[in-house]
């Protein structure tokens, strides 16, 4: 695992390279805010952007990438099908609409946003179709627990390449990590810096002091060294840059172990077994 620059990538199960670090744009406003954030991120070397239909900023994401001058083929773009669009035909339609808003002919990764009961297997069949057509270079899921992944396997012909879940030092989900590793599913961490709280989390901050880094940078480095992709969000230039400044230091096995010890099953977001949206 080479983690020596922001250009470092991990090969997904189908050999598509995915950057270890990307910019998340949940709650980033459509228009000027999302376009400016992405421009700062691309300038800082980011080559992966994580959006979703429900974030309502796909137009700005596409526009920012096109205007940046960075070739489309060099940016890894993720979007997701929203819960109310799940089902076979409705997912295909939602995908077309996302592409239209992005102004793109394909996405790099298309995800099922949440495991909507009774629907996600039909939704997955639609993602398999999009993958076979080459309009999604990789497909995956989000917020899937082991039970959801087990259910998805029945009748599926493609194993998800990615599972994007809430993941940070306070929520480590070791059984899910093991399951994904065993099945070649790459874990991707949302809320990787604990909504900003990682900066001042005492253990992370203390470890950071030794390396000249803040707690958020330590959390991100820990996530990557665990083999998990991370997509921190910020709309501020200095934070976008700081969150990417994690490739010039390495956490020791002892520091990794100390951070492993912070797990407390704490969620900042909804429980995938119990959501009502
Ligand atoms: P993060 O852990 O990335 O934290 C983002 C928050 O931290 C923002 O309020 C940001 O504020 C602040 N912040 C960013 N950098 C710093 C810093 N260096 N110091 C202090 N504060 C900082 O949480 P998110 O929930 O946004 O998760 C990241 C991404 O994951 C999302 O943007 C989205 O793409 C994805 N996601 C996916 C979900 C899913 O269901 N699949 C659910 C939730 C998120 P500011 O912008 O003002 O800097």
Structural features, described:
The N and C termini lie far apart (37 Å). This protein has one domain (9-260): NADP-dependent oxidoreductase domain (TIM Barrel), CATH 3.20.20. By secondary structure, it is of the alpha/beta class. The strands form two sheets. It has an eight-stranded parallel beta sheet. The protein has helices at 32-43, 58-68, 88-102, 120-132, 146-153, 174-182, 202-211, 215-225, 237-244, 253-260, and strands at residues 9-11, 17-19, 23-24, 48-50, 76-81, 107-112, 136-142, 162-166, 186-190, 229-230. It has ten helices and ten strands. The structure holds NADPH dihydro-nicotinamide-adenine-dinucleotide phosphate (NDP). NADPH dihydro-nicotinamide-adenine-dinucleotide phosphate binds at residues 24-26, 50, 113, 142-143, 164, 190-196, 199, 216, 231-236, 239, 242-243, 269.
**Which small compounds were modeled alongside the protein?**
NADPH dihydro-nicotinamide-adenine-dinucleotide phosphate
Helix content: 25-40%
Low-confidence stretches: none
Quickly count the helices: 10
- How many domains? The number is 1
Q: Please name the CATH architecture.
A: Alpha-Beta Barrel
Rg calculated over all Cα atoms: 18 Å
Give the strand tally.
10
Per CATH, what is the topology?
Answer: TIM Barrel
Mean pLDDT: 98
Question: CATH superfamily name?
Answer: NADP-dependent oxidoreductase domain
Helix/sheet category? alpha/beta
For the report, how would you describe the main beta sheet?
8 strands, parallel
């Amino acid at each position: 695992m080479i983690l020596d620059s922001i250009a470092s990538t991990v090969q997904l199960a189908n050999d598509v390279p995915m950057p270890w670090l990307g910019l998340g744009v949940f709650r980033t406003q459509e228009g000027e805010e999302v376009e400016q954030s992405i421009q700062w991120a691309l300038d800082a070397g980011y080559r992966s952007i994580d959006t979703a239909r429900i974030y309502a900023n796909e137009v700005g994401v596409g526009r920012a990438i096109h205007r940046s001058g960075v070739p489309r083929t060099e940016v890894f773009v993720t979007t997701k099908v929203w819960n109310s669009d799940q089902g076979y035909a409705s997912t295909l339609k939602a995908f077309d609409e996302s592409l239209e808003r992005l102004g793109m002919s394909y996405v790099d990764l298309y995800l099922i946003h949440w495991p909507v009961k009774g629907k996600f297997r039909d939704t997955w069949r639609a993602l398999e179709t999009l993958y076979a057509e080459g309009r999604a270079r990789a497909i995956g899921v989000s917020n899937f627990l082991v039970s959801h992944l087990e259910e998805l396997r029945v009748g599926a012909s493609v194993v998800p390449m990615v599972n994007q879940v809430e993941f940070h030092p306070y929520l480590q989900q070791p059984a899910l990590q093991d399951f994904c590793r065993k099945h070649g599913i790459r874990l991707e961490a949302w809320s990787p810096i604990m909504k900003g709280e990682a900066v001042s989390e005492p253990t992370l901050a203390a470890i950071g002091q030794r390396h000249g880094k803040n707690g958020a940078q330590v959390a991100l480095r820990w996530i990557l060294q665990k083999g998990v992709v991370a997509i921190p969000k910020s709309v501020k230039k200095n934070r976008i840059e700081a969150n990417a400044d994690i490739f010039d230091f390495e956490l020791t096995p002892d520091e990794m172990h100390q951070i492993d010890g912070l797990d407390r099953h704490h969620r900042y977001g909804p429980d995938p077994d119990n959501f009502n949206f």
